[in-house]
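As a warm-up, study this chain.
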Amino acid sequence: MKAQEKKASFLKRTIDLALKGNANSTTCVTVFQPKAPHGLKKFSKMNNDK
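Now compare it with the structure written out below.
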C-alpha cells in the first residue's frame, strides 16, 4: 500500500468517526435583542415613524 493510499484510508476513517460522533448532537442558540428606547430616535438619521 502506498503512502498516499494509507493517508487517504486514515483520513476516511477519521472523518467517518467524527461524523458518527456528531450525528446525534444538536446546537440551539437563542438571541435576545431588546427594543431600543424611544429617546434614541432623535439620534437616528432614518425616518422610521412606524
